[in-house]
Amino acid sequence: MLKVQNLTKSFGANTAVDSVGFDVDRPAMIGIIGASGAGKSTLLRMLNRMTDATSGLVEFEGRDVLALSGTHKRAWQSDCAMIFQQFNLVPRMDVVSNVLHGTLNARSSLATMFNLYPNADIHHAINILDRLGIADHAAKRAESLSGGQQQRVAIARALMQDPRIILADEPIASLDPMNAQIVMDTLRRIHDEDGRMVIANLHTLDTARKYCDRVIGMRKGRIVFDGTPAQLTTGVARDIYGADATFSEAATSTAIEALETEAEKARHVAEAAL
Ligand SMILES: Nc1ncnc2c1ncn2[C@@H]1O[C@H](COP(=O)(O)OP(=O)(O)O)[C@@H](O)[C@H]1O
Ligand SMILES: [Mg+2]
């Protein structure tokens, strides 16, 4: 289905993505993991043509994705919808209008400017919101929703394009654990029920292990692992994140515990003062 070969992106002397290649032969759910700066976002952005590749090949069902231009390029961008860490909704606009923005590529700019959405689209948008369990919020401003709800609105907006692929760039990095789980469950369900390919950049290894059929590990722009969650051993993880990863992870959690203890103390002091 999707073939990526020697895909490279350089920013000046810095090679963000370095001769990356992988094949996807069925609509899988794929997690891309790697430390910050490994090139995960740049890779996704090249796949949906938000960023131009320096060199290499991307093919989807035999079509040369990197050669598409004009309406063909826009059609491709509809086919592979993108979801972002910060949701990228219009905060002051109501939820259903945000979802209807997902049809933007297919409509005239004049109709869009005057919010002239066909009734069928509005019904469809509400059905999608209903499917994701947030139809009750359809008329609210996007900014009044929780992060987890906003990300589900962003997923609804993506589904409005009826995409073949959903590209998600750290979709749960800004969410608390409960909302993170709801959003990942939602992506997995869309994959299972609709047969859409999902490629998600994920910050934590555990999430990739739990939700994905296949995990691609990147380090310094290169793919250093491509396999099943079961093959993702501690040794492999060290390759992906660097030799001192375990140490720095432990250091981070110690630091967080210390902060939590401080916050707890402060809360007791505040309560005592009241
Ligand atoms: N627009 C840009 N201009 C210059 N350098 C960039 C740009 N986008 C990303 N980079 C660089 O490319 C590398 C990979 O970044 P990125 O793809 O964002 O990694 P990740 O998503 O894994 O954190 C980093 O070194 C980053 O600084
Ligand atoms: Mg990134």
From TrEMBL:
<dbReference type="InterPro" id="IPR003439">
    <property type="entry name" value="ABC_transporter-like_ATP-bd"/>
</dbReference>
<dbReference type="InterPro" id="IPR003593">
    <property type="entry name" value="AAA+_ATPase"/>
</dbReference>
<dbReference type="InterPro" id="IPR027417">
    <property type="entry name" value="P-loop_NTPase"/>
</dbReference>
<keyword id="KW-0472">Membrane</keyword>
<dbReference type="GO" id="GO:0016020">
    <property type="term" value="C:membrane"/>
</dbReference>
<dbReference type="InterPro" id="IPR017871">
    <property type="entry name" value="ABC_transporter-like_CS"/>
</dbReference>
<dbReference type="Pfam" id="PF00005">
    <property type="entry name" value="ABC_tran"/>
</dbReference>
<keyword id="KW-1278">Translocase</keyword>
<dbReference type="GO" id="GO:0016887">
    <property type="term" value="F:ATP hydrolysis activity"/>
</dbReference>
<dbReference type="GO" id="GO:0005524">
    <property type="term" value="F:ATP binding"/>
</dbReference>
<keyword id="KW-0547">Nucleotide-binding</keyword>
<dbReference type="GO" id="GO:0015416">
    <property type="term" value="F:ABC-type phosphonate transporter activity"/>
</dbReference>
<keyword id="KW-0067">ATP-binding</keyword>
<dbReference type="InterPro" id="IPR012693">
    <property type="entry name" value="ABC_transpr_PhnC"/>
</dbReference>
<dbReference type="InterPro" id="IPR050086">
    <property type="entry name" value="MetN_ABC_transporter-like"/>
</dbReference>
<protein>
    <submittedName>
        <fullName>Phosphonate ABC transporter ATP-binding protein</fullName>
    </submittedName>
</protein>
<keyword id="KW-0997">Cell inner membrane</keyword>
<keyword id="KW-0813">Transport</keyword>
<keyword id="KW-1003">Cell membrane</keyword>
<feature type="domain" description="ABC transporter">
    <location>
        <begin position="2"/>
        <end position="245"/>
    </location>
</feature>
